[in-house]
Structures are given as structure tokens and as C-alpha cells.
């Protein structure tokens, strides 16, 4: 009897976008227009690579980045929720699937002592080069036309579930907690016993509603949240059942 909790990171665990938060380290806390306008839809990771080069060129070092990233606020109620999950790890497996990067997520979770709550983190690999520049790569290659080219969260989730099944682990229910457009692909993959928890007022909630209006509703249950204490209340009911 185990439950799988799948979390997005930006605007879900933390209340901001970690990739745009790092801009606080830039000169005058902003990027030049040419760099800002160089983003192409579906190619966010390449864009962030250019941002990191700009920061490196301007002498922004690892310790300054780390100090800045660890000031990012958690979403309302999230600290309590992660504390609750941490105390009930025998019931919950917990993973992050995010379009952020390994360095940012690692810094933020370790600073708040939440890294032990999560069994695995699936995100774009990042590292500091010998010259002290932060570099980032695409998480994987995939053939999903609906997702950004560096990450299909459905593929990540499916591969994780297959790997767990090979080790004899299957889940009573999957709870998917997210906010963004790229969370729709894995949500559509969920089965009727599973539950999607889109954050209120964000893209994922709007896209799920749109599917229902188009008479193609998602198969799983949907529970909207605005504070993570609502997610915690649901999980408490779940483990009592």
C-alpha cells in the first residue's frame, strides 16, 4: 500500500520560477533585451544556457548564485506538507519532475533540509565548469510533439513506474501536483484511481478545464489547490482510508 507523489518544482514547491529568480544576480538585476528576446518556444534550456554564460561573463560566482537561490520562498503551506510527507515516508514515495536544473533544486532542498523527502529528482543536469560558469543540458530526447524538446514529463513518469514495477513496487494511487502547461502530458497519462492536483489559477488548471469543455476530460480525479495545506488534508484522508 504505497502512494506515489509526483511534484513539479517551480510555482509548485517554490512560489517562483527558479530560472527567472537567478536574474537577481545579474547587473542591475536584469538581462539585456537582446538576451531576453533570444528565447524560442520549446527551447528554454538553451536560453538558460545563454543566461548562465552572461552571468559568468559578468563575474557572478557560484557562492553568490547559491545565496540568491536559497532565498526563494516556498509556496504557502509547502513547508508543512513536506514535513508531513517526511514523517510518513513508509507510505509515500516522492519524486520531482521539473524543467529547472539539478544545481538549483539541490541547493534549495538541502538549505531547507527537504532533500531526504524526495526519492528521486528528474530535471535538467547542471554543473559548474572549470572556469566557474554554470552549464545546463537537456534532460533527455523524446518524440512527444506536445512537450518542450528537452523534457517530456509523461515519458519520465512512465519510465519511473516501469522501473519500480520491475523491482516489485506498484502504487495504490499516483498524486500529481503541478501548475504548468508541461504538466498536462503526464496528467493525461494518469488512470481513474489517480489524482491530479493543479494549482489554482495556473496554466495546468486552465488546460484541464479546457479539455473537459471540449468533452475530452482527463481520466483521473482533479483536485485544485491554492495552499499546500489543502494537499496535506487530502493526503491525511488518503492514509486513513
TrEMBL record:
InterPro entries in the record: HAD-like_sf (IPR036412), HAD_hydro_PyrdxlP_Pase-like (IPR006384), HAD_sf (IPR023214), Pase_PHOSPHO-typ (IPR016965)
Cofactor(s) in the UniProt record: Mg(2+)
Pfam families: Put_Phosphatase
Annotated positions binding Mg(2+): 8, 10, 179
Keywords attached to this entry: Hydrolase, Magnesium, Metal-binding
Protein residues bound to substrate: 19, 99
Catalytic residues (UniProt): 8, 10
GO molecular function: metal ion binding; phosphatase activity
Organism superkingdom: Eukaryota
Cross-referenced NCBIfam families: DKMTPPase-SF, HAD-SF-IB
Family: Belongs to the HAD-like hydrolase superfamily. PHOSPHO family.
Name of the protein: PHOP2 phosphatase
Species of provenance: Thalassarche chlororhynchos
Gene: Phospho2
Amino acid at each position: 500500500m504505497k502512494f506515489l507523489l509526483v511534484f513539479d518544482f517551480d510555482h509548485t514547491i517554490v512560489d517562483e520560477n527558479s530560472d527567472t529568480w537567478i536574474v537577481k544576480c545579474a547587473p542591475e538585476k536584469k538581462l539585456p533585451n537582446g538576451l531576453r528576446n533570444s528565447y524560442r518556444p520549446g527551447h528554454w534550456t538553451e536560453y538558460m544556457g545563454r543566461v548562465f554564460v552572461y552571468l559568468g561573463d559578468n563575474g557572478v560566482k557560484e557562492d553568490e548564485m547559491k545565496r540568491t537561490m536559497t532565498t526563494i520562498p516556498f509556496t504557502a503551506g509547502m513547508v508543512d506538507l513536506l514535513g508531513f510527507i517526511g514523517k510518513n515516508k513508509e507510505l509515500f514515495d516522492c519524486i520531482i519532475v521539473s524543467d529547472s536544473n539539478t544545481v538549483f533544486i539541490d541547493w534549495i532542498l538541502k538549505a531547507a533540509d527537504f532533500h531526504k523527502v524526495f526519492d528521486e529528482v528528474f530535471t535538467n543536469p547542471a554543473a559548474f565548469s572549470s572556469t566557474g560558469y554554470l552549464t545546463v543540458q537537456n534532460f533527455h530526447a523524446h518524440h512527444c510533439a506536445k512537450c518542450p524538446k528537452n523534457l517530456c514529463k509523461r515519458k519520465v513518469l512512465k519510465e519511473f513506474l516501469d522501473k519500480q514495477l520491475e523491482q516489485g513496487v506498484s502504487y495504490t494511487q499516483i498524486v500529481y501536483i503541478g501548475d504548468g502547461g508541461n504538466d498536462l502530458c503526464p496528467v493525461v497519462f494518469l488512470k481513474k484511481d489517480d489524482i491530479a492536483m493543479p494549482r489554482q489559477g495556473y496554466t495546468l488548471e486552465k488546460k484541464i478545464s479546457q479539455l473537459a469543455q471540449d468533452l475530452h476530460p482527463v481520466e483521473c480525479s482533479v483536485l485544485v489547490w491554492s495552499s499546500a495545506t489543502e494537499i496535506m488534508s487530502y493526503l491525511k484522508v488518503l492514509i486513513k482510508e
